[in-house]
Amino acid sequence: MPEPADATEPENATAAPATAEEVAWFTAAVREHSTALVRYFARRGPRQDADDLAAEVFATAWRRRADVPREAVLPWLYRTAGFTLANHRRKTVDLPVDEVPEKGAVRVSDDPELSALFDAELRGALESVGERDRQILLLHAWEGLDGEGLAHVLGISRSGADAALSRARKRLREAWGERLSF
């Protein structure tokens, strides 16, 4: 499975000119998936950045158009969007080098994905599952991905994606149950 580029990939100045078929494919991909990408970013960060971040993903898709699986364009875009969002978040945090937090030191409650949830109990349950489980659950619930789509985004097999979704749901149910028993 081709790996999506991260958003910092340099332009390839020696790339062959685009064919009419590539232009038609890209135009269709933008028309079909731009709203989904803008929503993806709007749910995960400042709304004012969503259009620009979606444009970055499409720029990467254009540069990497030969690598985008035609049967799984949207999952590839979501995977690339995850890298783009991570790069964007790193750019917006000004920290002196001696104050860089260890991995996992950022408070989950500061996560824009979770702050978009109005239900405090659901937000609390999602805070208590791991980051990967949260990513899987939100891709499934918000973006409508399951099975093959999740497999493409996560870079794993279809059966692995199904199992990961099942485990994430189980952990969320357990976290929800623990919160309700208090």
UniProtKB/TrEMBL annotation:
Keywords, alphabetical: Sigma factor, Transcription, Transcription regulation
RNA polymerase sigma-70 region domain location: 30-91
Keyword Transcription regulation: yes
Gene Ontology MF terms: DNA binding; sigma factor activity
Domain of life of the native organism: Bacteria
InterPro entries registered for this protein in UniProt: RNA_pol_sigma-70-like, RNA_pol_sigma-70_dom, RNA_pol_sigma70_r2, RNA_pol_sigma70_r4_t2, RNA_pol_sigma_r2, RNA_pol_sigma_r3/r4-like, WH-like_DNA-bd_sf
Domain RNA polymerase sigma factor 70 region 4 type, residue spans: 121-172
GO biological process per UniProt: DNA-templated transcription initiation
Family classification: Belongs to the sigma-70 factor family. ECF subfamily.
Stored PANTHER family: RNA POLYMERASE ECF-TYPE SIGMA FACTO, RNA POLYMERASE SIGMA FACTOR RFAY-RELATED
Protein name per UniProt: Sigma-70 family RNA polymerase sigma factor
Record lineage: Bacteria, Bacillati, Actinomycetota, Actinomycetes, Micrococcales
